[in-house]
Every structure is written in structure tokens, then in C-alpha cells.
């Protein structure tokens, strides 16, 4: 695997199960830079045999890989590295992928439609970024984020209609029949309350 991979989509339930224990999450975090079992045992203040067991499980799951071996005091030391700097859980693990319905008025305001669209965006972008990493190319993306306060619940619907109309006008201005196709997603949801 390419050592420069930024993200990896974890879509196999067994692979996810192997990664979720606290010690294995610590190992994946630490293995963003190459290390041996001896180094990891020292860093985490754990027995080398215990570290070795967890490293084998992560390696079998394809989450870490061997980057070099070196001779050390009569034995061969294996140096390992995580296969990615971040792992993204494929939403399909719990719920099979669905094709979101076209954005009708009912779907436009449905939480399950938003989740389906967001899940597809996560899956698509991580897969494309993984392919871009493998080929040494850049994935062209953009993100627009903002917050708004609505004085009245009915303003949400009026805002959505105005945003849809403005988006359609901008798309019409820039759309080209021969250009690279992009998917545009605009979504809104209440800002989560912070705990005091």
C-alpha cells in the first residue's frame, strides 16, 4: 500500500472489530510513524508480547503494514506503519447503501434523506481520495460551511427554497456539457448544543 495514504475506508465489519479496542486504537495512532514492537512497548509501557499480539491482529486485518526489517541483537526486528493516517468507517457496515431519492419537497426536509446523502458523500470522497493517493494526484473538492439563526420555523422552508433557486441559477451559469461532473450537496441541521 502507498505509505502516503491519508484516509482509508473501513468497510469490513471484522476489520472494524479488530480496530476498535482501546489498545489497538492507540497503536494505530502511534503507527502513523513507523515503529517496532519493542519501541511501542516502551512508549506504551506494556509487555512486548502483548504489543506483538495486537500488532499481528492489526496486520492480519490490513490496517498496518511492514515497512522494513532490521537486525538487532540476534533477532530480526519488524518495523510497521499504519496503512493510513485516518480510518473512516463506511456507513454501509450498519446500513446498506441506498440511493437517496431525488430532492422532492418531502425528502428535502427529511433527516433520513440528509443522512443517506451524507453517508454517500463520505463513502464516495474517501474512495476517490484513496485512489488519488495511489496515483499521486490531487482530488479536487470544496466545502462551504456557515451558520444561520432562524427567527421562525417557517423561515427554514423559505430559506431552503431561496437557496435552491440561487443554487440552480449558479449551476446554470457554470454548467458545461463537456466538463468534469461534480455533485453539489447543501444541507442544514440544528447546531448541536454544547455542554456547559
TrEMBL record:
HTH arsR-type domain boundaries: 15-99
InterPro entries: ArsR-like_HTH, HTH_ArsR_DNA-bd_dom, WH-like_DNA-bd_sf, WH_DNA-bd_sf
Superkingdom, natural source: Bacteria
One Pfam entry name: HTH_20
TM stretches of this protein: none
Name by which UniProt lists this protein: ArsR/SmtB family transcription factor
Organism whose genome encodes this protein: Antrihabitans spumae
Organism phylogeny: Bacteria, Bacillati, Actinomycetota, Actinomycetes, Mycobacteriales
Amino acid at each position: 500500500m502507498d505509505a502516503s495514504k491519508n484516509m482509508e475506508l473501513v468497510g469490513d465489519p471484522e476489520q472494524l472489530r479488530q480496530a476498535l479496542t482501546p489498545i489497538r486504537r492507540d497503536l494505530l495512532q502511534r503507527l502513523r510513524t513507523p515503529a517496532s514492537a519493542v519501541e511501542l512497548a516502551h512508549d506504551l509501557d506494556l509487555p512486548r508480547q502483548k504489543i506483538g499480539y495486537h500488532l499481528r491482529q492489526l496486520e492480519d486485518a490490513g490496517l498496518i503494514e511492514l515497512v522494513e526489517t532490521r537486525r538487532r541483537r540476534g533477532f530480526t526486528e519488524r518495523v510497521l506503519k499504519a496503512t493510513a493516517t485516518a480510518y473512516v468507517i463506511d456507513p454501509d457496515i450498519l446500513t446498506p447503501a441506498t440511493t437517496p431519492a431525488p430532492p422532492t419537497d418531502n425528502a428535502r426536509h427529511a433527516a433520513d434523506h440528509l443522512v443517506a446523502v451524507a453517508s454517500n458523500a463520505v463513502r464516495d470522497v474517501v474512495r476517490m481520495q484513496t485512489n488519488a493517493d495511489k496515483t499521486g494526484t490531487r482530488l479536487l473538492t470544496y466545502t462551504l460551511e456557515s451558520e444561520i439563526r432562524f427567527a421562525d420555523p417557517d423561515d427554514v422552508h423559505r430559506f431552503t427554497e431561496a437557496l435552491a433557486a440561487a443554487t440552480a441559477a449558479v449551476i446554470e451559469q457554470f454548467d458545461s456539457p463537456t466538463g468534469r461532473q461534480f455533485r453539489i450537496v447543501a444541507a442544514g441541521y440544528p447546531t448541536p448544543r454544547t455542554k456547559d
